[in-house]
Amino acid sequence: MIHLKQPIIVEGKYDRIKLESIVDSLIITTDGFGIYKDKEKMALIRAFAEKDGVIILTDSDGAGFQIRSHIKSCIKNGKIYNVYIPDIFGKERRKEKPSKEGKLGVEGMDIAVLEEAFQKAGIFFGQHPAEKWLSRSDLLSDGLMGRQGSAMLRKRLLDEMKLPEHLSTSGLLDVLNRLYTREQYENVLKKVKE
Hints:
The chain has 194 residues and is α/β, with parallel strands linked by helices. It has eight helices and six strands; from the N terminus they run E-E-H-E-E-H-E-H-E-H-H-H-H-H. Helix 6 (150-160) packs across helix 8 (182-193). The radius of gyration is 17 Å and the shape is globular.
C-alpha cells in the first residue's frame, strides 16, 4: 500500500474503489460532470492544491479530459500532478456495453497499469519532475503543431508512446518532459515520421 499526502481526484465511486486497493490517500470523486456545479467540492480541491498539491486521474476519453481541464482551470495557485492512463479498448465488467469511445476507464484498468501510470508521473517513488527539455517551439519545429498534417503526426506519436489520444499539446509537453529523455523522444519521432 502506497501512502500519499496528496489527495487523488477521480471521476466516480468505482474509480475510488479501484484505487483504494493500491493507495492510502484521500480520494475525491468529481461525480462526473457534477464537479462543474459543486462549488464546495471545488473549493476543497483548490485548498488541497494550494497546500500539498492534488493528483488528477481521470479516464482517457473526451469526458475525462474535459473534467481534468475544468479542474485545472479552477486551480490558479496550487500544484497539480497529472496521472494519465493509456487508451485501452474494452468494457468494464459491471457495464452492459462499452463506453461511448469504447475505452476502459480508471475502474477497468489492471492494478499493474495503474501503478505504472503513477510511476511514470513520478508519484510513487518520490521522483521529481526532470528539468524541462522540450518546449512548444520544439513541437512546432518538429511538425507536431501549427502545420498541415501536424494533428496526424501527433496522433501517431501518441499511439506509438501509448498515450491517450485526447492529450492536449500542453499535456503532451508535460508528459514528454516528465517521462522521456530527448533521445527517446527523437527515436519515437523519427519512427512515426517514416
